[in-house]
Design a protein that fits this description.
The complex is a heterodimer. By secondary structure, chain A is mainly α. Chain A has twelve helices and two strands, in the order ααααββαααααααα. Chain B is of the alpha/beta class. The chains are: A mainly alpha, B alpha/beta. Chains A and B meet through α6, α7 and α12 of A and α2, β6 and α3 of B.
Chain lengths: 302, 234
């Protein structure tokens, strides 16, 4: 019984990471904008949802969309400010955003300071209180929805334009693409997904604290995207599954766990820098073939 | 169609272009020639909106566009083929072309222009599903031209289209530019290969160290001893 509950927790967390990594993938993978502060938006979603349910008395079902909306609005504001700079400067700016957001959670009583926020309710459905296993079913359904959304995005005109911005900003400008707007749209889409993940996390854990959303979490999410293959649909999913489960699977080597985990990352980046599903990967065959086939259809469609 | 007056552009503290005035009339093919580093590309990029001028005005169809962002200018019909091809390397040929047609809403028109682009460069039709990066240099340049074509420009800015191409391909891309011109597109062509540029252009300007030193019809410039000596290899 204990072990199955443990499994439920690991799988739920993996799902939440899949949503986080897929969101970051829109920003960094498709639009090519480094964001090392993704956990900040994860935190904003979690705190928004927690406060809306515990202090404003809303239900989970009302708090969830509001938390996404709040994160999107903050993402829009911070995106407009941050996206004025690019590349390494943007990376540093987003790190700064992460520290500022965590500091706000830490220093304002309204956000519970270092003690965090507790007593966050689990959702109820048709009068039933969802416990962890039932909650996992809900999370799985959301993941399916998110992946469908990402699939539509990757095949859409918007997805194509955003990719063009990643590939060559100057060329995109020469052809009349509104580069700034496209970057901001990608940023808002990605941060909204982080807000969604945050809300799911808050109501799963029922207790959140600022450090759940600190800079190292942003790094973990970035690793998932890069490891799986940035700019591919399923790469971030693979990355999230591998990196979220690896520390658990490697538990048997105890103290050497992080050593092995870290070394694996180093080796992978040395020998397969475009990620597990990226270009030139042995695992990529299927993904790329599928992509080619989808493109073939588009091509015939003219 | 394009009137540049007293244009000055700085890079940081250094002057790249100084007091340049030139015009490109509707339907004309005007070339701007000069040595590497003379400031040709800077002028073109400023017309597109990629650089801010420090001084002077840029009027397009009678309207001052100096403060407008590139995509706004593009909506008005200004499209640029940037230096060094700059195709989208991880996207297919067709995807590259679709991005060119991004701003257009006339589906039939896009389809027709796509056909036109394929007719001009049949190899692109064969390679429609291929990733841009895998094309040869010449094919990439053809794609860059075709991509601008499907944007259906009124004023096409062309930057160093022959750079790094084999002679036979240079002829081909210049023929393509000529074809576009014949179909009524106004073209402002920046080129180091003055000989080729002056063969297809109506008029030309010569730029040296950020200043205009000569202007005239293409024939006049071809016959000019100064131009012959400095830019046409004697």
């Amino acid at each position: 019984m204990i072990s199955s509950l443990y499994l439920v927790t690991v799988v739920t967390m993996t799902c939440i990471y899949i949503i986080l990594a897929s969101g970051l993938n829109i920003i960094t993978g498709y639009a090519g904008q480094p964001n090392l502060g993704h956990a900040a938006f994860f935190g904003i979603g979690a705190y928004a949802s927690a406060l809306l349910t515990t202090k404003a008395g809303l239900s989970f079902w009302a708090a969830l969309p509001l938390a996404i909306l709040i994160t999107a609005v903050v993402g829009l504001a911070l995106g407009v400010i941050s996206l004025r700079v690019r590349d390494d400067f943007l990376a540093i700016t987003t790190i700064g955003v992460n520290f500022v957001v965590v500091s706000v959670f830490l220093y304002f009583t309204f956000f519970g300071r270092a003690l965090g926020l507790g007593g966050i309710p689990r959702p109820t459905l048709f009068g039933y209180n969802l416990q962890k296993p039932q909650y996992l079913v809900l999370v799985l359904a959301v993941v399916a929805l998110v992946m469908a959304l990402c699939w539509v995005f990757s095949r859409s005109r918007l997805g194509l334009m955003v990719t063009a911005v990643r590939e060559d900003e100057i060329a995109a400008r020469c052809l009349g693409l509104d580069v700034t707007r496209l970057k901001i749209i990608a940023f808002v889409l990605g941060t909204s997904l982080a807000g969604l993940a945050g809300s799911l996390y808050a109501h799963f854990m029922t207790f959140i604290s600022p450090y759940d959303f600190a800079f190292p979490v942003s790094i973990t999410i970035m690793c998932m995207v890069v490891l799986g293959g940035a700019g591919t649909l399923w790469g971030p999913v693979v990355g999230a599954v591998v990196l979220a489960s690896a520390p658990e699977l490697l538990r048997f080597i105890q103290d050497y766990r992080m050593l092995v985990y870290g070394s694996l990352l180093v080796l992978l980046m040395l020998f397969q820098p475009s990620g597990l599903l990226g270009m030139g990967s042995a695992f990529a065959g299927r993904e790329l073939r599928l992509a080619a086939r989808a493109r073939g259809r588009v091509n015939q469609g003219g | 169609m394009l009137d540049i007056e007293n244009l000055t552009v700085h890079y940081g503290h250094s002057v790249a272009v100084s007091g340049v005035s030139l015009t490109v009339g509707e339907g004309e093919l005007v070339t701007l020639v000069g040595a590497n580093g003379a400031g040709k590309t800077t002028i073109l990029r400023t017309v597109m909106g990629l650089h801010r001028p420090t001084q002077g005005s840029i009027r397009y169809q009678g309207r001052d566009v100096a403060g407008l962002r590139p995509w706004v200018r593009s909506r008005m019909g200004v499209v640029m083929i940037p230096e060094g091809r700059r195709i989208f390397p991880e996207l297919t040929v067709l995807e590259n072309l679709r991005i060119g047609a991004y701003a257009r809403t006339d589906r039939d028109g896009v389809a027709a222009d796509l056909e036109k682009a394929y007719a001009m460069f049949p190899i692109l039709r064969e390679r429609a599903g291929q990733i841009g990066r895998t094309l040869s240099g010449g094919q990439q340049q053809m794609l860059a031209i075709a991509r601008a074509l499907v944007a259906r420009p009124k004023l096409l800015l062309v930057d160093e289209i022959s750079l790094g191409l084999a002679p036979i391909l240079v002829d081909e891309v210049f023929r393509a530019v000529e074809t576009l011109h014949r179909e009524g597109v106004t073209i402002f062509l920046v080129e180091q290969n003055a000989r080729k540029a002056l063969e297809i252009a109506d008029r030309g300007y010569v730029l040296s160290s950020g200043r205009l030193v000569l202007e005239g019809t293409a024939a006049e410039l071809r016959a000019n001893p100064e131009v012959k000596k400095s830019y046409l290899g004697g």
